[in-house]
Structures are given as structure tokens and as C-alpha cells.
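Lecture 7 notes: from sequence to structure.

We start with a single chain of 101 residues. Read the sequence below before looking at the structure.
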Amino acid sequence: MRFLYFNTSADDAVCIPVHRINQIAHNADASVHIDFLDAGDAGGVAGTVEMTVTDGYEADVVKRIATLCAEGSEAVSVIADDTNSQYCHPKITAVGTITAA
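Now the structure, written as C-alpha cells:
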């Protein structure tokens, strides 16, 4: 099983199983969000990770994350870690919020 890892500067963190990703999208300037499903029978959206990115690079970041989901070989892929300044794409600037049910 593979996971995506996110960590905010407030040290809130989450590892999301890749098979629980519902969508990776951008719908505002300088913002990308990842919705993930819960593990229960309802299968509804269990949470969202919001990230800020350099304006104009939202689609590039979405594509990079999608590529890691489809082709990544590591058990845990760090997407955005504010505490250690580690990002899967150089235009990710921060993890905004992590909300999980």
C-alpha cells in the first residue's frame, strides 16, 4: 500500500492511502486541494488537504501529484512537509489546512 504525506507548519500531519484519493484539483488562484474518502461503507469525502502554490503553477502541481499516485515507487511519498521544507514540486509553497473527519 502506498501513502501520500502532508505536514503543516503547525505540525498537523496526515498520511493518505493513495487508493482513498477522490480528487486532486485547483479551483482558485494559488490553491490546490486533495480530497480523500473515508474507509467506511458510506465512502464519502473524509477530508481535504489544501495547499498554496505559486500562481500559474496550479495545473503543474496537480499533474505532479497525480503522477506520483500513478507511478510512485516509494511506500510514502512526501507531497508537502512545511516543518522540513520538503515538497514534491518546487512551486508548492505551504500546506494551508488539513481537515479530516
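The first helix runs from residue 58 to 71. Keep this in mind for problem set 3.
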